[in-house]
Amino acid sequence: MEGASDGGLGSPTPPEAAVVDVKNFSNYLRRVVPLLLEGDPEVPIELDTTLKDPLHVDYIRKFLADAQTRSLLVTRTPLKDEEESDETSSTESGAESERERAIYSIDLDIHYTAPKLSSVAFIKRGAIVDADKKITSQVRVINLNEGSPYETLHSYISNAVAPYFKSFVRKSGKADR
Length: 177
Fold this sequence. Notes:
This protein is of the alpha+beta class.
């Protein structure tokens, strides 16, 4: 009774929101990442291995629960260059050789490393990823493909963000003021 009455009558402590389970979020990544980075719904063994790595599990846990950690980056790095893939494609199917030639990594910051890398950035909308809500409503996903970061930024801003914002302004009537 002492602990309950110390805060006064009108100040009960709000219950803490439950953070989504790492396993549930990893399953979400297993569904989204292969489609965006490889165009195939089948989960590559390398991605599955990465999602089970203790360091990467800690990164995912921190992304889900730490209000200061706003983004998570999943990167796919090809291991062989295009010349070698031409030689192996005659002996193996394209999907198998593609999966054998890539590694995945997970980081807590968004960064550029090389032009051949493909990445998917996950950005939290709130402080945590709440277990009581759908993951898709709490996380924004940005595909960062091969090529120039400048071209990627320009493409996102001019073809998606600017039209989206202009549409909002027109629809809300704020453009008339």
